[in-house]
Amino acid sequence: MEVVQLLAQLRQLNRADKLHVMQFLASELANEQADPIKQDLNYPVWSAYDAYEAADKMLHVLETTKLA
């Protein structure tokens, strides 16, 4: 079925049915976007563990703001 035909049929629906179709489509779109993480794939995650250089920079900033 082409979109033009589908739109023509949707126009013929009553208000309640149109709202039901809208709810269905909104739910479908939400479900498609809700699970962007695919199974069986590895995703890198940054951790502050062993980030000594970053910790030194943050400590330096904190110390210089205390002096100001």
Explained architecture:
The protein has helices spanning 3-11, 15-34, 52-67. The chain is mainly α. The longest helix is centred in the middle third of the chain and has 20 residues, at 15-34. The model has no long low-confidence stretch (mean pLDDT 88).
Rg over CA atoms, rounded to whole Å, is: 27 Å
**Multimeric state of these chains?**
single chain
Q: Please write the string of helix (H) and strand (E) elements.
A: HHH
Biggest beta sheet summary: none
Mean pLDDT: 88
User: What are the segments in which pLDDT stays under 50 over at least 5 consecutive residues?
Assistant: none
Number of helices: 3
List the helices and strands and how they pair.
Blueprint: H1 3-11, H2 15-34, H3 52-67
Label this structure with key terms.
68 residues, mainly alpha, 3 helices, 0% strand, elongated
Summarize the structure.
The protein is an all-alpha fold and 68 residues long. It has helices spanning 3-11, 15-34, 52-67.
